């Protein structure tokens, strides 16, 4: 997990991550990980996500903040493409509630409505 721009997130996510039975990892402002042999970067802000996608160091960059679902391919400085995804808002803030489902092996992702 990473935190968004709600300052309450900083305290509560950090506190929650320290609970003994918690199985999630709290990265803080941003995080990178490898999952299914894909390099993934997580951050809340889209401008930061787009900049990280441009580096070509990641296969997938995920962000939030926009409150609308986005799936885009960004041409990076290494001559390939990096996928950037914002799953939208499950709460329906400023847009219909959405989430994104995908396959890391094929790198195919789809925006789905929350129902």
Helix content: 10-25%
Query: Cα-atom Rg, whole angstroms?
Result: 15 Å
Query: If you average the pLDDT, what whole number results?
Result: 94
The geometry reads as: globular
- CATH C-level category: Alpha Beta
How far apart are the termini?
Answer: 23 Å
Instruction: Give me the number of helical elements.
Output: 2
Largest sheet: 5 strands, mixed
Count of domains: 1
- According to CATH, what is the topology? Purple Acid Phosphatase, chain A, domain 2
Provide an overview of this structure.
This protein has 115 residues and is of the alpha/beta class. It has a single domain, classed as Metallo-dependent phosphatases (Purple Acid Phosphatase, chain A, domain 2, 4-Layer Sandwich), CATH 3.60.21.10. The protein is built from two helices and seven strands. A five-stranded mixed beta sheet has the order 1-2-3-5-4, with helices on one face. The protein has a two-stranded antiparallel ribbon with strand order 6-7.
